């Protein structure tokens, strides 16, 4: 499981250091793809295969909306690996799609790592009151207890 957040700068060649704590759970080869909310997703290969199979079973490629989602989710996806220094080379196309320039936040989120432009990530941060209200909306007052989290 990936968790935590880490801020790093990319070098001039578009290489990004993946923190050792996150590297521990990445497979040797993994997949990078455009994520939701204008960030990038890094999936360990095993999780990518599981996610792909889940999408294949749930979505009908002959349904126009399903096919559009699949196209957007898979286009630009690439199998990648870290170099000997624990760095990931980001393609210019993916960087441009999510407006990554130099400062990047890597955020662990369960089965994947999200890669955000630092300014966009900071704009997402909710206050503790917002998070409490969100938990109440999602989990409900009647079902809210320590086991729900």
TL;DR?
Helix content is 37%, strand content 26%. The protein is built from six helices and eight strands. The strands form two sheets. A six-stranded antiparallel beta sheet has the order 1-7-8-4-3-5, with helices on both faces. It has a two-stranded antiparallel ribbon with strand order 2-6.
Total number of β-strand segments? 8
Ends distance: 16 Å
- Placed side by side, the strands forming the largest sheet appear as 1-7-8-4-3-5
Shape: globular
| CATH H-level superfamily title | Transcriptional regulator MraZ domain
The SSE order reads EEHEEHHEEHEEHH
Mean pLDDT over all positions: 88
What proportion strand? 25-35%
Structural class category: alpha+beta
Radius of gyration equals: 17 Å
How many structural units, i.e. domains? 1
> Which bin fits the share of residues in helices?
25-40%
By CATH, the architecture is named 3-Layer(aba) Sandwich
Low-confidence stretches: none
What's the tally of helices?
A: 6
Largest sheet: 6 strands, antiparallel
CATH topology: Chemotaxis protein chec
CATH C-level class: Alpha Beta
Task: Describe this entry's structure for a reader.
The chain has 149 residues and is α+β, with helices and mostly antiparallel strands. The protein has a single domain, classed as Chemotaxis protein chec (3-Layer(aba) Sandwich). It is 37% helix and 26% strand. The chain is built from six helices and eight strands. The chain has helices spanning 20-23, 45-58, 64-74, 92-98, 118-124, 128-139; strands at 5-9, 15-17, 29-34, 40-44, 78-81, 87-89, 103-109, 112-117. Strands 1-7-8-4-3-5 form a six-stranded antiparallel sheet, sandwiched between helices. A hairpin with a 2-residue loop joins β7 and β8 (112-117).
